[in-house]
Design a protein that fits this description.
mainly alpha
Amino acid sequence: MSGRDDVLSRAKEERRLFERILSVLPGFKGYKEKELRRESDRLVRDHLYRRLREGENLLKEFFQRLSDRRAYGVLEEVDRLVMIFDRVKARIDHASYGYSGFFDVLKVDEKDLEEMLSFDERLIKAVEEVFEETKALREVDVEKVGDIRRHLEAIRSSLKELEETFNQRKEKILGVK
């Protein structure tokens, strides 16, 4: 099952019996679908935030290891990367949950929904890449500055891709593009 299918199915599973009964009432089904889209948005963003926080914590542990070993050559680069993690996390955490544009419409065009699910899938994939690359950094010998820099660049590149995809998704939700 892909990431986007998992998010949708998880949101749908959270509906209670009462909600399923009410979903047959006129107008309520569209309202409920809108709420499910909002819930899916929240679930995706919560997942992204959690994984970024975990990756950032791994990076901070690596920073401490570098500091303990007095490997000062890359400390500043690691510190800048921690700041990028903070910025991306904050942007994801503080973005308002889908209460405009895409989420206000009772009936969403299937093409638009598919596009949103594609964004979500790309975001989930990107955040997992960031996490795995950060995890791999822990295994690098602190004396091998070249290897450390290659890993830092891979993490930075993945974070940039994640942030760009999140911005595109936000523009789609707000109806900018």
